[in-house]
């Protein structure tokens, strides 16, 4: 992407690649597609849709996004070897605008301990990778992984060589979140002074949040001349996460007078997109998280409330509706019609197809039979779970559970898509444990429970409860999320979703970015 407007910052979203590969954030292909469409509506410029060489499933997901999502450039990640680059290209090529993102680590730590490659070999491999990719695709991004811990002179040498080989975007990753705002800006200043041809490429930032400075580092680098920010919704990503898209976009918008920069982000889509991701992955947003947290616009203290009543600008630097937070105290109930429901869904920032709206309205009616009053949180929950991809071979038919102060027991009846109905019982430490054990027996899938959370989506005794279950099976993590006014039922369904994900991924054999990136032998194929 050439950047015609010198003050326009390109937003490169990597929620579906760096974000999705972190533990607990994996998504099914339909979930990824839904998220990619939401990112396009949000106005991101580039979607890094995945790492096509990681598995057949990843390749297919990237290809589906490239075929179906219009607007942003669709990008696929690849190491510097022909096989990865071929896979990335074949996955993205059907997008009208596509990009291959090749990376190779450059720091001494990675050269010596991970790759076992000398400096010359790094440059040769990076150049061959970029050249090979360039023969397939015009738009090439190169990332010297762990750039922020790379000797500046060597970094400039690598960058000069890959620009000459055809790279059009140079990304400078702070892979381990080690840099500080000043130091990170200095890397960009150094590259601008020492790299021939640097003005012809877009400089990009990619920051991890290990020291809580990913957003600050990204802003510092754009202040120093970078014009692409790589970020993720809710800041999800490896370890402490990546730079948070909503924070960096609102910082640039709110402080436009200072930075003099702008993005193409439709900020009123930020809150619905954040909610979509947290509901899809079960990765909850902390209450006090900037921009999209529950408390981001709440004013509790008397002095602040008093000031807000006089004028909102006393204690508010952004308006809630600027970020798409348009919850009200309006209540719907079982007598509310389709029109009222449709209008509320729209006001909350969700666009549903006719079919999705019908499905959501049916769920709304069913919930309205159980619950007197439905709040905006209930409607959001229904809409976000509509078209949910947690489907799989097993589903719950019936559940019985009882608990005394001594022991708990449960019986579940499940049905498999092949027509089998299985009933199994178990005892446990409390009814939820008994339900999970009964499901393990019924499905023959002994998953190890890692975390289990239940929280109310709205106020009131009859609030919808969201259950989020994370399990481990064969050293991989799986997640299930489900909603019900009955928390035993939502817990059972969330656990069944984990089992379904385990059963459908058994044959896939996907490897993580860290595993792939550490595989020096495949990196060297081109050299
Ligand atoms: O953090 C990192 O270095 C990466 C690269 C692949 C860009 O994610
Ligand atoms: Zn990263």
How would you describe the overall organization of this protein?
It is built from 20 helices and 14 strands. It has helices spanning 15-19, 29-42, 56-68, 82-92, 108-115, 119-134, 152-164, 181-194, 214-223, 245-254, 256-259, 270-281, 302-310, 338-347, 354-370, 376-385, 431-443, 487-505, 513-517, 520-523, and strands at 10-13, 46-50, 73-79, 98-105, 140-145, 169-174, 202-207, 228-231, 394-403, 408-416, 421-428, 448-456, 465-473, 476-484. It has 4 domains: 10-281, TIM Barrel; 296-326, no CATH class; 327-387; 394-510, Double Stranded RNA Binding Domain (2-Layer Sandwich). The longest helix has 19 residues, at 487-505. An 8-stranded parallel beta barrel has the order 1-2-3-4-5-6-7-8, surrounded by 8 helices. It binds 3-methyl-2-oxobutanoic acid and zinc ion. Zinc ion (ZN) is lined by residues 18, 173, 175, 206, 208, 238.
Compact description:
By secondary structure, the protein is α/β, with parallel strands linked by helices.
Number of domains: 4
Uncertain runs with pLDDT below 50, 5 residues or more?
520-527
Structural class: alpha/beta
Q: In the CATH hierarchy, what is the superfamily of the largest domain?
A: Aldolase class I
CATH architecture heading of the largest domain:
Alpha-Beta Barrel
Q: Strand fraction band?
A: 15-25%
CATH class of the largest domain: Alpha Beta
Radius of gyration: 24 Å
Q: Number of helix segments? A: 20
**In this structure, how is the largest beta sheet organized?**
8 strands, parallel, barrel
Average pLDDT number = 90
The CA-CA distance between the termini, in Å, is 29 Å
Neighbour order of strands in the largest sheet:
1-2-3-4-5-6-7-8
């Amino acid at each position: 992407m050439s950047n015609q407007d010198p003050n326009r910052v390109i937003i490169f979203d990597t929620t579906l690649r760096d974000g999705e590969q972190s533990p607990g954030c994996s998504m099914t292909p339909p979930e990824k597609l839904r998220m990619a469409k939401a990112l396009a509506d949000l106005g991101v410029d580039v979607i890094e849709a995945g790492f096509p060489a990681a598995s057949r499933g990843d390749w297919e997901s990237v290809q589906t996004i490239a075929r179906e999502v219009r607007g942003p450039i669709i990008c696929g990640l690849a190491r510097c070897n022909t096989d990865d680059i071929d896979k990335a290209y074949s996955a993205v090529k059907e997008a009208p605008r596509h990009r291959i993102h090749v990376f190779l680590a450059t720091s001494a730590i990675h050269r010596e301990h991970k790759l076992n490659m000398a400096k010359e070999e790094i440059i040769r491999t990076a150049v061959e990778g970029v050249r090979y990719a360039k023969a397939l695709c015009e738009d090439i991004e190169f990332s010297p992984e762990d750039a922020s811990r790379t000797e500046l002179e060597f970094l400039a040498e690598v960058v000069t060589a890959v620009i000459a080989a055809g790279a059009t975007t140079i990304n400078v990753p702070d892979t381990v979140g080690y840099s500080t705002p000043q130091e990170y800006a200095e890397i960009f200043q150094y590259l601008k002074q020492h790299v021939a041809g640097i003005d012809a490429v877009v400089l990009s930032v990619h920051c991890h949040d290990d020291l809580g400075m990913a957003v600050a580092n990204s802003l510092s680098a754009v202040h120093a001349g970078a014009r692409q920010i790589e970020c993720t919704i809710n800041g999800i990503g490896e370890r402490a996460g990546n730079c948070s898209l909503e924070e960096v976009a609102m910082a640039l918008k709110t402080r436009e007078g200072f930075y003099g920069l702008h993005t193409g982000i439709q900020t009123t889509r930020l809150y619905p997109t954040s909610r979509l991701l947290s509901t899809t992955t079960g990765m909850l947003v902390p209450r006090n998280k900037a921009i999209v947290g529950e408390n981001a616009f709440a004013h509790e203290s008397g002095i602040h409330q008093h000031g807000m009543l006089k004028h909102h600008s006393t204690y508010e630097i952004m308006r809630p509706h600027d970020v798409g937070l348009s919850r009200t105290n309006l209540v719907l109930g079982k007598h509310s019609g389709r029109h009222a429901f449709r209008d509320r869904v729209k006001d909350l920032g969700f666009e549903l197809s006719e079919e999705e709206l019908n499905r959501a309205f049916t769920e709304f009616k069913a919930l309205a039979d159980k619950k007197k009053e439905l709040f905006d949180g209930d409607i959001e929950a229904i809409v976000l779970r509509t078209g949910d991809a947690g489907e799989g071979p097993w589903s719950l038919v019936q559940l019985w559970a009882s608990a005394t102060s001594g022991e708990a027991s449960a019986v579940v009846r499940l049905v498999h898509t092949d027509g089998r109905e299985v009933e199994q019982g178990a005892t446990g430490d409390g009814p939820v444990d008994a339900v999970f054990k009964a499901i393990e027996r019924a499905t023959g899938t002994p998953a190890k429970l890692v975390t289990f959370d239940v929280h109310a989506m709205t106020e009131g005794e009859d609030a919808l409860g969201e259950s989020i279950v994370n399990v481990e099976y064969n050293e991989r993590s799986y997640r299930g999320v489900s909603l019900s006014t009955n928390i035993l039922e939502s817990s059972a369904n969330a656990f069944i979703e984990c089992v379904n994900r385990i059963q459908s991924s058994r044959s896939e054999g996907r490897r993580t970015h860290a595993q792939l990136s550490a595989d020096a032998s495949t990196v060297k194929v081109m050299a």
